[in-house]
Specification:
Strand 4 and strand 5 form a beta hairpin. The protein starts with a strand and ends with a strand. It is elongated. Strands 1, 2, 3, 4 and 5 form a five-stranded antiparallel β-sheet that branches. By secondary structure, the chain is mostly beta strands. 11% of the residues lie in helices and 54% in strands. The chain has one helix and five strands; from the N terminus they run E-E-H-E-E-E. The protein has one domain. The relative contact order is 0.27.
Length: 76
Amino acid sequence: MKFIISDISQIEIIAIDKSIREVGRLRKTYGKGRWRKLKGIATIELEDTTICQAELHWYEAHGIGKKEIKIKYILD
């Protein structure tokens, strides 16, 4: 993924704190916080300059921000 072009919409919480498998690693890498795993839809530009809609997944904690954004599915 090269760039996220639009705002992320249709945001849903997938998991919170202890229900996240990697919460220990997240705390060790980025710090303590109330970690949440989220998903949402955004328009992105891929490495080959293709523009498309995709479902993104990421981790987020208050005061730390979005971390490890990844493309889960290309929607068009």
